[in-house]
Amino acid sequence: MNTTSTSSTQPKDSKISVDYFIGCLLGALLGDCIGALFEGQQDVPMESVEDLFQDLTNEDLTLDQLVPLEFTDDTAMLKSVAESLIRNKCFNARDVANTFVSEYFESPKRGYGGSVVDVFVKLKKDKVSDPFQPAREQFNGSGSYGNGGAMRIAPVALFAHGNIEHMLDIAAQTTKITHTHRLGVHGALLQVNNSFHIEETLRLLTHIG
User: Fold this and answer.
1) Where do the H-state alpha helices sit in the chain?
2) Which domain holds residue 125?
């Protein structure tokens, strides 16, 4: 079982601005916080979204006059992926799983789904002896096909942006800690590389995940 990926991640374009990385992560955070306000609603009028943005950009409003924004489990897990990649300078499945577990038990009320909570409980009980086993066992062995892997994938795209095959491999392995169904994995693979190389990504889907 390969729980560590150490392939080179040297970018093809070393001139990519740090602002791009910051913008990607802040954009994911802001999207999560704003999206959480509308989560669960069947229909969201565009006027509601526009009104919210007007309030957020209104310099005359004080902080206590604004709708409070809180990040959800998606950002909590995205942050965990980023922390692990930075800490290890490579993908380490056991460390990512441990970070997920620690983050959840420190702040469990961020909207985690019941299935992923079951994964974290088992990982903690077994001391992450196999970071992929609890997710593999779910739904009679078929695994979850939810979108959790895609929701937290941004740090993987940034970490391995110079090597598409390595990027997709890390994306698949990161996703399989909680979602092992092919649809869940493939959704994350498309999301991690959705801005470019779509045809190449689709070709590689048959070999990864």
Assistant:
1) 18-38, 46-56, 73-88, 93-106, 114-125, 133-137, 148-151, 154-159, 164-175, 182-192, 198-204
2) 72-209
Q: What is the pLDDT of residues 79-121, one digit of tens each?
A: 999 999 999 999 999 999 999 999 999 999 999 999 999 999 9
> Are 152 and 175 a contacting pair, CB within 8 Å?
no
User: Within 13 A of 59's CA, how many CA atoms are on the CB side?
Assistant: 0
Instruction: Specify whether 146 is located in the same domain as 167.
Output: yes
| Inside any domain, residue 97 | yes
Is 29 inside a domain boundary?
yes
Residues 143 and 48 occupy one common structural domain:
no
DSSP state of 171: H
Binding site for Mg(2+), by residue number, is: 72-74
HSE-up of 171 (CA within 13 Å, CB side)? 36
Indicate the pTM of the whole model. 0.84
Summarised one tens digit per residue, pLDDT across range 176-196 is 999 999 999 999 998 988 755
Adjacent-strand bridge partners of 5: 91
Rounded to whole angstroms, the Cα distance separating 66 from 208 reads: 44
Report the length, in residues, of the chain: 209
